[in-house]
């Protein structure tokens, strides 16, 4: 009888675990803490300041993404990024200029991202977010605030009011029109047809607006009149 002795064999493997050491960021944003490019009259600029790690060069390439808003976006080609400008040994600045070619929703922040690449082509870019916001606020007041006039026949229908820009952006045009005026006695009505008036009215400035009141076909007392600009 032959006896067989089974000897289990073990394979010993030595595994050395190396801690995951993430690469330190090449660049750190110094100011502003929450960068916003404010648009005034459709354009805006901002300068961002960065520090760089010792021994790291200024970014070899900077890419910007499109800026996303609530209703639409600002295309990346409408955002111009300047070349890095050295300030001190390890500090540099980057300028951002925005000139949108499409509608920008006033008061709505649009968020974009800067990607800074250093000379190490295998490294992940350092990213920084910034916002773009159109601060345009169009508002104005008029003098007089109400008009009471008799029209028809030989009476002059011409009127003039003074408009003052109380907003934060230049007003480039006015459109003068009105609500429907109704004679409650005979139910006749009339209305000022829309009329465009070109203007270049900076904030705080005033201008005169001329228009003619409509001449009624029927006599009466027309009320509930609102002038729209």
Q: How many domains make up the 3D coordinates?
A: 2
CATH C-level label of the largest domain: Mainly Beta
Q: Give the assembly state of these chains.
A: single chain
Provide mean pLDDT, rounded: 81
User: What fraction, in percent, of the residue positions are helical?
Assistant: under 10%
Helix count from the secondary structure assignment:
0
Sheet-strand content, in percent, reads: 35-45%
How many β-strand stretches? 20
Q: Which regions contain 5 or more consecutive residues with pLDDT less than 50?
A: 1-22
CATH superfamily of the largest domain: Immunoglobulins
Structure, described:
The chain folds into two domains: about 25-135, Immunoglobulins (Immunoglobulin-like, Sandwich); about 140-229, Sandwich (Immunoglobulin-like), CATH 2.60.40. A hairpin with a 5-residue loop joins strand 15 and strand 16. It has strands spanning about 25-30, 35-40, 45-50, 60-65, 65-70, 75, 80, 85-90, 90-100, 110-115, 125-135, 140-145, 160-165, 170-180, 180-185, 190, 195-200, 205-210, 220-225, 225-229. It is built from no helices and 20 strands. It is mainly beta and about 230 residues long. The strands form six sheets. Strands 1, 3, 7, 8 and 9 form a five-stranded antiparallel β-sheet that branches. It has a four-stranded mixed β-sheet with strand order 2-11-10-4, with no helix packed on it.
